[in-house]
Automatic annotation (TrEMBL):
<dbReference type="InterPro" id="IPR037883">
    <property type="entry name" value="Knr4/Smi1-like_sf"/>
</dbReference>
<protein>
    <recommendedName>
        <fullName>Knr4/Smi1-like domain-containing protein</fullName>
    </recommendedName>
</protein>
Length: 277
């Protein structure tokens, strides 16, 4: 599966009779428990799209089977389902996923709307409600409104499979941990709640960390500070975190940009399904 999943790493050709080009079907061995397949793929690719949450409107292999679970993964769709005949077996498929388009967005679209569009994320999915009053009371500060809207739209997960925007609980954890241990001697900004201290909101597997610089009473005007772990000085950005995220995904010259081989952006959903589990 892995050699097929990364775009341009392998040609997608299907050996199933009558199937169109643009995808590869992989029969699931007889006797394989579907729940085991879904558990493994959930660990790899996050929470899937389903009929309840909304399947992709166009899937290159959409007519070949009844697909019940679909995961976005860069320039690929990973799909699980069953053939359409009565005695059909379970199938996995890897199909081309075009890069989501920003066409149709108004010129004054918010940075959050642009993130939704560029990742192909549905903005209609229900999320667990957050008691922001309780979160901000424990932190001792209000949080930027675009962060709250981002969390309400995306929930928990990874942008492009590697960039983790902290949940409210994680923002609290990082703030309380930093307040206990203090700052490293090379860091130019003290940790929050010191005046102008940094309050972390994201990190990634490249050991890069992203924080607000909590200067001034209006959180929507806070600057950002991005750094690698270690003694190198970071970079300050005067923008909101949703603007930063959008440019991080789409600007190949961004100093903290995503890997160049990521051609189609996506959000790897780690939200619990309704009812948990």
């Amino acid at each position: 599966m892995s050699p097929l999943a990364w775009p341009d790493s392998a040609e997608l050709v299907c050996a199933e009779p009558g199937h169109r080009p643009g995808h590869t079907c992989l029969p699931v061995p007889d006797g394989t428990n579907s729940s085991d397949v879904l558990e493994v793929f959930g660990d790899w690719y996050g929470r899937p799209l389903t009929e309840e949450s909304g399947l992709p409107a166009v899937l290159p292999c959409g007519e070949e089977a009844r697909w019940t679970h679909v995961w976005p993964f860069a320039g690929r769709w990973i799909a699980f389902g069953r053939g359409r005949s009565e005695d059909a077996r379970s199938l996995l498929a890897v199909a081309r996923r075009p890069a989501p388009s920003l066409d149709g967005l108004p010129p004054d679209a918010s940075w959050l709307d642009r993130l939704v569009a560029v990742t192909g994320r549905s903005s209609s999915g229900a999320r667990d409600e957050v008691d922001w009053t309780a979160v901000e009371s424990r932190l001792g500060t209000r949080l930027p409104n675009d962060y709250k809207r981002l969390h309400e739209t995306f929930g928990e997960g990874l942008f492009d499979g590697f960039l983790n925007v902290h949940s409210p609980d994680d923002v609290i954890w990082h703030a309380e941990y930093a307040a206990r241990v203090g700052q490293e001697p090379w860091e130019p900004h003290p940790p929050f709640p010191a005046p102008g201290g940094v309050l972390h909101w994201a990190n990634n597997e490249h050991h890069q960390s992203f924080a607000w610089v909590t200067e001034g009473p209006d959180p929507d005007r806070w600057g950002l500070y991005a750094t690698y772990e270690g003694p190198e000085e970071g970079i300050r950005f005067e923008c909101t975190m949703t603007e930063f995220l959008f440019h991080q995904l789409t600007d190949p010259q961004h100093p903290f940009g995503v890997p160049a081989e990521v051609g189609a952006h996506w959000f790897q959903d780690h939200n619990e399904p309704e009812g948990g589990g």
